[in-house]
């Protein structure tokens, strides 16, 4: 899950390697940072991210069913088309799955679901996206994909809090470019003498605003 956070003008986010460093700086509250040969008082704030979502996605690939699409439009009865699909995918010399139990063909959408008798018959189609389909003396290419069952589990909402990240507010504008100011902030907060520590990520915005994504 990625949770976006809006970082406004003259603000910075610093993620430390050590959670204790971030929490210590938050408790101190205010810090004097040297920017452009000036001493700037900045405020360190904790922050809460927007609502996030957690879930497990379970995908089960059928061993007996495949989806077939892009079936050619032919002027033949539907039951004939079903028979030709069954015969085509039964042919073992074309890498088919063997005996077919059922063909569910939909003429309007030009799709079909083919069910084989033997479990595991669809294994040969897992990496196959296009498959030859011979009918009326012509060979077409139909799209083939495994039939999957998808469902969600353990779906829950939560409020994200980054314990290793601090929010800096009130950074004064300077004549230096954004990258230089970001470097000066990083140098200051990396020093143990300033109660800092190793920084994993830093993002400073001098103008406008940007969205920063947090990953769990």
UniProtKB/TrEMBL annotation:
Subcellular location: Cytoplasm; Nucleus; Secreted
UniProt keyword terms in alphabetical order: Cytoplasm, Immunity, Innate immunity, Nucleus, Secreted
An annotated GO cellular component: cytoplasm
Location of the NID domain: 12-97, 112-201
The protein's name in its UniProt record: N-myc-interactor
One Pfam family here: NID
Any one Gene Ontology BP term: regulation of innate immune response
Keyword Zinc: no
Family according to the record: Belongs to the NMI family.
